[in-house]
Amino acid sequence: MKRMFVRPQSQQRGVGLALARTIIDMAVAAGYRTMVLDTSVRQREAIALYRRLGFTDVPAYYDVPQALATWLVFMSLELRPATTRDPGPTTTADPRPPA
After folding, report:
1. Distance between CA atoms of residues 28 and 38, nearest Å
2. Which of 35, 45, 69, 86 is the most exposed place for a label (fewest CB within 10 A)?
3. What is the pLDDT along the chain (99 residues), one digit of tens a residue?
4. Hey, where are the domains in the chain?
């Protein structure tokens, strides 16, 4: 997943969650088995969203200078086809945050 962005006026409304779930579902449908991403350590909301979706921290998956590596968080998600996964982060669900 690369460069997912939600305009400020749409943030905190579930748009990012719905978008990320759709991207994940499309990757599953295309036959991908793993999704990786990196983001800045300053993107706390994004990191929380990715963790909510099941992403876990992993070592850098490309060569990156050490000075830059301290500013990045690398994450990975194992993808499962819809028929074999439990209802969870990659299902199409109500994108609104819990009340």
Report:
1. 19
2. 86
3. 888 888 888 788 889 899 999 999 999 999 999 999 999 999 999 999 999 999 999 999 999 998 888 899 999 999 987 654 444 554 444 444 554
4. 33-82
